Amino acid sequence: MAPELRGCGLGLMAVVLLATPAMAQRSRDYTPSQFVSALNGLGYPVKLTDTVETPIVRQAIRDFQRRYNLPVTGTMTPASQDQAAALVKALQQNLNQVLKPSPALPQNQYYGAQTESFIKVFQSRNRLPVTGIATLEIRSRLAQALLNSGPPQAVPAVSQSNARPLATNASSVIPPIPPAPEPPTAAAPVAAPPLPAVVAPLPVAPRRPVMVAPVQTFATPRPNVKFGRLYTELEFRRVLQGLGYDINPTKFLSDTSAVVAIQDFQARYGLALTGAADQPTQAMVRKILRVLQYNLQLVSDRPVAITEFYDDATSASVRAFQQRNKLRVDGLATVSVRRAIDNQAKRRLIK
User: Fold this and answer.
1) Which of 112, 232, 261, 298 has the maximum number of C-beta atoms within 10 A of its C-beta?
2) CA distances, 45 to each of 63, 117, 135, 274 (Å)
3) 275 φψ region: left (φ > 0), alpha (ψ -120 to 50), beta (else)
4) What is the pTM of this model?
5) pLDDT per residue over 191-218, tens digit each?
């Protein structure tokens, strides 16, 4: 269910739309060991025996926070826990859709023994190293499998315990999987450069002196397009690019990069993680663009048409805002840029 929209006018609505993506995903706070287990399961180089105070875990948390555009503190902030919960739940949902286990893998915020076991199943079936670690590459392959898989073979039931052993023998949890050598004590390192996570937002470049990038052009909608109309595939791809998602502009929306971007968007706004540009997803995109364009009207000295498309005028207004505020100038309305625009618009409305 999409987050409830509150506030007066579109300017205040934007603040709600850009809230932390997993507000409804996390049922409770992680314990330190549970959070370390989630980091380990998502591919960060920490051990299950490490504590959150150790330098390697603090560095992993900082890397996690930078990747998902969170305040970089190196601690278990609520926003960091929300993001981890959203990633783990998206991973579990994708595993259920691809593997069709019986019973289904419970969807919760914990990277426990069951999640690890089903990752091993997926890795074994795809002739990948069987580690039980859902690195960014594994999550990207899982997203692609959603598009390519036929009726999958049922996965045998596994232990219902959520406790994750420090060393798990694959054959003792899931009999059909042949034993595979376990990785070193340290978790599998994060791939470099990493691929986009299934539900992860595009990493945002750190703030730096104004750097002017080449102007990107976006399709200008036809004059006869009416509000409420769903996007064409080309229009939707350009919207994703305008919102800062790193997709291949020459590929269809079935391409892995687009599926990953759409699932990230869906997770951020509480939509079903279909990885497709379905009607609820397009409706939320229209709402985000209208809010963005309305707020640009409030903070800009130039008129901005509310078109529901990421056109050249919108890109130019975003570039002007970035230049005024000493941000990287690229015309892309990433999450951090939209948040900055929303904050200024909100202050002007309050005045």
Assistant:
1) 261
2) 11, 19, 10, 29
3) left
4) 0.45
5) 444 434 333 344 444 443 433 334 343 4
